Amino acid sequence: MAKAEKQESGSYNASNITVLEGLEPVRKRPGMYIGSTGPAGLHHLIWEVVDNAVDEAMAGHCSRIDVELLADGGCRVTDDGRGIPVDAHPQYKDKSAAEVVLTVLHAGGKFGGGGYKVSGGLHGVGVSVVNALSTKLTLEIDRDNKHHQLDFIDGGNVKGKLEVTGDAPRGRTGTTVTFYPDASIFEETDFRAQTVLERLQIMAFLNKGLEIRFSDLRPDRKQSQTFKYNGGIVDYVKHLNASKESLFKKVAYYESIEEDMEVEVALQWNTSYNESIYSFANGISTGEGGMHEDGFRKALTNAINKHARAKGTLKEKEDNLTGEDIREGLTAIISVRLGEPQFEGQTKAKLGNVPVRSMVEKATNAKLAEWLEENPREANQIVQKATVAARARIAARSARDLTRRKSALDGAGLPGKLVDCSGRDPRESEIFIVEGNSAGGSAKDARNPKTQAILPIRGKILNVERARIDKMLKNAEVQALIAAIGAGLAEDFDLAKIRYHKIILLADADVDGSHIRTLLLTFFFRQMKPLVEAGHVYVAQPPLFSTLVGKEKLYLKDEAAKDAFLAEHPDHKNDFQRLKGLGEMDYDELRDTTMDPTKRSLLQISIEQAALADEVCSVLMGEDVELRRLFIQQNAKDVRFLDI
Fold it and tell me: Which of 143, 298, 334, 561 would be a feasible disulfide site paired with 279, CB 3.0-4.6 Å?
């Protein structure tokens, strides 16, 4: 083999090595620090500042946090904690500790210096990252009876030194951070009030007695709300179950403290068929669970079975109830606090501290057993519900086995109505779940047969929010969905087996189409949750309007696109056509507007806050009509953001 010649690419020496100093790395690669430069990253700036204030609350030094969205586009976060230290930093003698915290990555009171026993912010990059990504930031500190101020501009460049500007009002202590996101970094800099409110409410639930006040001071959007929950996570469980029918009124609660660890658990059952367990470590949501959840699940199963055996509600010859049976209809919050949390992965989504598992297990075994003894009526209701769930599980297993046997007899086991793609690489394949047979015909003609499959859905699928899995598996449309996706269902679901990496919901832009989309999204969220979490579920966005410009037909996505078009073409008001049905489109129109990957617009469905998604599903698809009406009224103005 001939020796490959080395390409000449210029000299490569020490002068080629770039060192990014101070806050430069953040501005160079913002996504590494805040996840993205889209809306999620923008709001992450608020979370970083609020997290610092919450750390003060967890340390017992803060009782109130104010978050204001300012009229000029900025955000101000104020707490009544101890105030960031203002004395000279021993390592940076010419700088105050406050300046160091705002300008040096990995600087803070959370790295073993005794500032915090428990903290959510582990990386120490929080408020300095906010500074780096802001055009202007003002830091105000009330401490030692003095009011101090320090200003930064253009991504963290300090203006002067920390100065005393007067006396602290009435001996107040605390920190105020006012910042303005940099429009050259972010795709948009308009904060969404509802997003902020949802996050602040969860923080208030997790910190018993902490008062969090929110104010939106922007013109035409003015509103204010205060969150304070003296019941803490007990109130959180009540809130989550408000959209469901509780099995009983009481909420079980227990706590335990061991050395540098503590746990709080609140739980209550409802009449639904879904489990809703949400865990947190030092106020951070652990969406992927971890040791605290493992300990809770194991001990919960043990405690209920032990109680049922002792009371004779579970007979000697009967099998134990499984964890799945017991957790049907359960809403639970597990909140742990510990000195040195170990989170798996950059997302901090899973807690890895092994000692936490045994602490939570021990507390649940002992204290839940006490609660069951003291509340015999409720304990009996739990066991009875779990027993019915066990029967349904056995029936579901039989239905599953029957489905599998049918699949084996049918060969490939794919539903007859599925028009599959010829390609066999799931990463390049996508399936359109299309409302109605007529639209399905258009979609079949409009598709790329190599990569695009079509599954027509006739009518509305079963509302899985109100059905157990055994009933679900008898529904023809649900069976077709399961078979087409090919990865199973519920606890049997295996993400590695999905046959398509894009599952795209294609429904009309009318009320019926919206209902079908919601039914399908509820099905995926409840029964194929990993599919949604991995970002494989999308909603197609067929245009709402068409118009002729000369001889060319132009398609406009929504009202906003129509308004923008009219602003440029004010004489064009009358030949607009509203497109209501997919069946109205010729196959070439459907292809060009909705299915062609080079031209279409897709909305990716994500679950950033599982508890919120759970609540939305329960409200929209549950039995409480009044609650649903109220939810729609409150969220109508934000409908462009409504993506579950």
Answer: 334
